[in-house]
Structure formats: structure tokens, C-alpha cells
Amino acid sequence: MTVPIAIIGTGIAGLSAAQALTSAGHQVHLFDKSRGSGGRMSSKRSDAGSLDMGAQYFTARDRRFATAVKQWQAQGHVAEWTPLLYNFHGGRLSPSPDEQVRWVGEPGMSAITRAMRGDLPVSFSCRITDVFRGEQHWNLLDAEGENHGPFSHVIIATPAPQATALLAAAPKLASVVAGVKMDPTWAVALAFETPLQTPMQGCFVQDSPLDWLARNRSKPGRDDTLDSWVLHATSQWSRQNLDASREQVIEHLHGAFAELIDCAMPAPVFSLAHRWLYARPAGSHEWGALSDADLGIYVCGDWCLSRRRRLAEWPGSGTPTAGTPAMNQINPRKLLLSKWTAATPLNREKHFLVTELFKDEEGTVLEIELQAVLTQRSERLPWQVLQQADTWRMGWK
């Protein structure tokens, strides 16, 4: 009997790893503490319709990734969003048009991860609290005391602080992950019965508690019964008000919205606040993925990547990211033929900076650098497969 691989987390990172591994012939089983997939790419059902409280849109600057997005578009999972954008700076609101093509899930951002998940086996509403290894295999323990397993390997695709809590069986790996800090973001949704008299559909905000705002109803496939808006606070404001009540957050960010908009603002008929405790990495890394391959445990996520390589850059940054070569269209089996050309020790704990060279299907030589916890164990999962899952995210805003 084939022993499956456990993947904790059904955001983009976890689902990308699941797709890459199943394409390479592995069996997987996914776990998520939420009721559905998506993580920060999820959508919130509400009385004001489906609301994108997390990631607002993405871009596809790499050719291969753009091809995948076009396939999603043909399948009805994504659509192009062409908002009328503004910029708020120095107390002034001004139009800020650009030529960037932006994409959104349809009818919500969660449509993307639902499409990626397909019929993969997944256990939702299952919070994993412990990951432990027996003589040969891994087992998972959930918050209800139920045991799941056995699994040949474990991939943890969660924000770094949550991953650290699950790495007691891999202390060397835990010490690396524990050093990763992540910034919070408060998100607020407001809906108005009478549409606000402004043409603005999105705004990059500076010099304000707000970082970004979007007219949710302007996105394709959204419910337009109410004039719904999603506001994101800055990381600094969110950190300073981390433990504020939802009512206080709504009041403050509603006030900030009213100060910058160029029209009268009535009282909203609907409001909602959500705190993303781990919205985005506070720093930048070039790890790709981390592993203790002797044990067979792996960790991945956007916090493993530099800002320019993240899949779903938290909206509101205001700075487009540069595209880099994505490997999402390369056959994982071909990647297994690639060769490490250099492995430079970073310390005495088996951490290496690996430089990897291989050719894609068009013969282009690609070079990848990643930090890894490597050993000589031949049974380790192919790093190239996990690297494919992480670099799949290149080209996203």
C-alpha cells in the first residue's frame, strides 16, 4: 500500500505542492483548520455578497503563468479586472491609471483555490496541533484528539508562526522558521444602500491608517445589490491596534475612508472586520522551501520567498513586483533530472545555499538558489518538485 504525503494548509502554497506531487505520481492528503480552501485567497460570504477580504487581485507577468491564467479564464475561474485606480498621497486624491493587467477569481478569489483543489482529498475544519514521527512514518493529531496517518512525509504550508508550533519533531528546522516575522493586517468591509458618488474603484493609500481600498462590486461576477468596499489598514496601524475590538476598527477605518473620499458618505448598512494576524512576511528570504529531509518534513509558503517572487503579494503595497521565470508548466518528472551545481554550507546545522541549474522545455537554462536543510538520505522528496510548487508563485502581485 502506498503511504500518502500529508499537506497542512490549503492556500496557494499547499495546493501548488499538492498539484506538483500528484503530477509526479505521489498520493497526498490535505488538512485545513478552516471550512474551505484559500487561506488569504479566500472569499467571505456575507449579507453584502461575496467579499474578498484578503488578496485583492493578481498579475501574470511571466509567459508560462499567463498561459495557466488564460486556461483558468477559459474555464470560468478568473476574469480580468480593469478598475479605475486612484492614489491618495499628501491629503490629495488623484487618478492613477496604469497599463497593468489585473486578474481576480470569479465569482470570488476563492474560485482559484477551489479549481486548484479539484478532487484532491482534504479534511476541512481540522486544526492539526501536533506532528510526530514513529519508527517509519508520520502521524498528525488534531484539536479533537483524533489521530491521522500514517504518512510518508509531511509538508507544512502555513504562515511561519503556525508552522513553528508544528515542528517540535524537527528542532533544527523549527529554529530557522521561528526567526520569520509576519505582519498583521486589519481588513474592513463596508456596504452602502446608495452607491457612493465616486468613479473610484481602487486606491493605493499613503499617509493614512489605510493602505488600500477597493470597490468590491466592481470586480467581475460580484453581487452589485449593495455598494460594497473592502479597506485594508497598514501593517503599522494594524500592529498598533492588534487587540482592538472589531467595532473600534470599523469605526476608525470608516472614518479614514470618509476623510479621503471626494464625496458624501452615508452610514453603511453592513460592516465587517477581519484581522489577518499573519498577512504578509515582514522580511524577505530566498529559501524557496525548507526541509529536514532526513526526517521527511518540509515547510513552504510565501514567507520563504523574496518580495518580488511571492505569489499573492498583499494588496495595497502600491509597488508592482518584477516578474521572474516561473516553472509551473515544467513537468516535475523532468525536474528530477536536474543537477545541483553547488551546495555551500551556511552553518553547522546542515543548512546549505543550493544553486541549481537545469533546462526548461524550450532549452532555456534556469538557475535557482534556495536555502535548504539537506542530508544525504536518498528517500527525501525531490527538492525540485517542492521548488516547482514555490516558484509557481512567481509573477503574482
Automatic annotation (TrEMBL):
Reactions listed under catalytic activity: 1,2-dihydro-beta-NADP + O2 + H(+) = H2O2 + NADP(+); 1,6-dihydro-beta-NAD + O2 + H(+) = H2O2 + NAD(+); 1,2-dihydro-beta-NAD + O2 + H(+) = H2O2 + NAD(+); 1,6-dihydro-beta-NADP + O2 + H(+) = H2O2 + NADP(+)
Key word Flavoprotein present: yes
Binding-site positions, FAD: 13, 32-33, 40, 56-57, 128, 302
Keyword hit for NAD: yes
EC supergroup of this enzyme: oxidoreductase
Cofactor(s) required, per the database record: FAD
Span of domain Amine oxidase: 103-304
EC annotation from Swiss-Prot or TrEMBL: 1.6.3.5
Superkingdom of origin: Bacteria
InterPro entries in the record: Amino_oxidase (IPR002937), Bac_renal (IPR034721), CHP02450_Tryp (IPR012663), FAD/NAD-bd_sf (IPR036188)
Transmembrane segments: none
Keywords: FAD, Flavoprotein, NAD, NADP, Nucleotide-binding, Oxidoreductase
Molecular function per GO: flavin adenine dinucleotide binding; NAD binding; NADP binding; oxidoreductase activity, acting on NAD(P)H, oxygen as acceptor
Sites where the protein binds substrate: 57-61, 96-98, 185, 308
Function recorded in the entry: Catalyzes the oxidation of the 1,2-dihydro- and 1,6-dihydro- isomeric forms of beta-NAD(P) back to beta-NAD(P)+. May serve to protect primary metabolism dehydrogenases from inhibition by the 1,2-dihydro- and 1,6-dihydro-beta-NAD(P) isomers.
Family: Belongs to the bacterial renalase family.
Name of this protein: Renalase
Record organism: Pseudomonas savastanoi pv. glycinea (Pseudomonas syringae pv. glycinea)
